[in-house]
Write a structure and sequence with these properties.
Elements lengths: L22 E6 L11 H14 L4 E4 L19 H10 L5 E4 L2 E2 L5 H14 L6 E4 L4 H7 L6 H19 L6 E2 L4 E2 L16 E4 L6 H8 L2 E5 L3 H18 L7 E6 L4 E4 L2 E4 L1 H13 L4 E6 L5 H15 L8
Parallel strand pairs: 1-2, 1-13, 2-3, 4-5, 5-8, 8-9, 9-10, 10-13
Antiparallel strand pairs: 6-7, 11-12
Helix pairs in contact: 1-9, 2-3, 6-7
Length: 323
């Protein structure tokens, strides 16, 4: 699709919703900072501050306990996600915070909802609940966490979404599911985000994941390597919304990946403004509200100098189907 060409949404494809152009988020996916373990805290703080100063809308960390193969070795440093986000909340003021994304198998749903609600309250209403079915078997086996078959993981995901909605409703009543039973869904204080903090469901599974987005989600997240696939997945999501009578425009569309034209090697950052602009324009033309930029070292001063320009390029773009 040519850059800067917007798509005419089909009838009923989107409703009016005011957004300030396309937004960017920043994902930290590595903690192998120069200086070893003692440098991790200052580097994470710098990354969060850099993203906020650049005008990024959100800051994300993976919710893993071992590093994943596409990013390094399992033995590489990895931080627990919600502790890291709480730390980032304390050194920032505006930027939203989330995991990209929490595996539903890692924490009992009642405790997960309480954890992310605490983050929302202490950050002043800046948390997302980023969640998915989970997939990384090695860390489950390694740390003694049960790893059910995929069908059961999706059943647990749907029940967790139902539990979150019930806990955030303020009704402390029983929940009876196939996998989870809660005697009272008490959650005080309630989130500061209203009507509740946004639920982002990660993944592009067409039969289950995107149906759950249409049913329970406030945002979806898709990998952005192939934009033809992104376009197809969004079309599938639109179909699920139509089937359920859910306005497609209620859902924030996000993608995760790199940015063509932006390259970081050690302390050296190169930036091809035209190439980056073309890619961001293509995302906006697909109706993507926010692109989550995954980078090697978000604490780098050289990268920080570029992030502001990238953010300005994005927010200047009109997202297809939005006012």
């Amino acid at each position: 699709m040519p850059p800067n060409v917007s798509i005419r949404p089909r009838a009923g494809h989107m409703e009016e919703r005011a957004l300030p152009g396309m937004q960017l988020g920043l994902q930290v996916n590595k903690f192998t900072f120069a200086g070893g373990a003692q440098a991790i805290g200052p580097s994470v703080a710098a990354a969060a501050r850099n993203a906020e100063a650049a005008g990024f809308a959100s800051f994300w960390v993976m919710d893993h306990f071992f590093q994943i193969a596409s990013m390094g070795e399992a033995e590489d440093p990895m931080l627990e996600g919600y502790s890291t986000l709480a730390f980032a909340a304390a050194v920032t003021e505006r930027i939203k915070l989330g995991t990209m994304v929490t595996g539903v198998t890692y924490r009992h749903p009642g405790l997960l909802v309480k954890t992310v609600t605490t983050l929302d309250v202490l950050s002043g209403g800046r948390a997302y609940l980023g969640i998915g079915a989970g997939w990384f078997e090695r860390e489950h086996v390694g740390l003694g966490v049960p790893f059910p078959p995929v069908k059961e993981r999706f059943e647990r995901l749907e029940e967790t979404l139902q539990i979150a909605k019930q806990m955030w409703s303020g009704e402390a009543k029983p929940y009876e599911g196939r996998h989870f039973q809660l005697a009272e869904t008490l959650c005080q204080p309630l989130p500061l985000s209203k009507p509740h903090l946004p639920i982002l469901i990660g993944g592009g599974g067409e039969q289950k994941t995107l149906r759950l987005v249409a049913t329970y989600g406030d945002a979806c997240n898709l990998f952005s390597r192939d934009l033809d696939i992104v376009a197809h997945k969004l079309d599938v999501l639109w179909g699920h919304c139509e089937a359920q009578g859910r306005p497609y425009a209620e859902i924030e569309k996000t993608t995760l990946g790199g940015l063509p034209g932006l390259m970081q090697v050690g302390d050296t950052v190169s930036y091809d403004r035209g190439q980056a602009a073309e890619y961001l324009a293509r995302l906006a033309a697909l109706g993507v509200d926010q692109h989550l930029l995954s980078v090697a070292d978000a604490s780098s001063p050289a990268l920080a100098e570029v992030l502001g320009e990238v953010s300005a390029q994005a927010t200047a773009l009109h997202v297809a189907g939005r006012p």
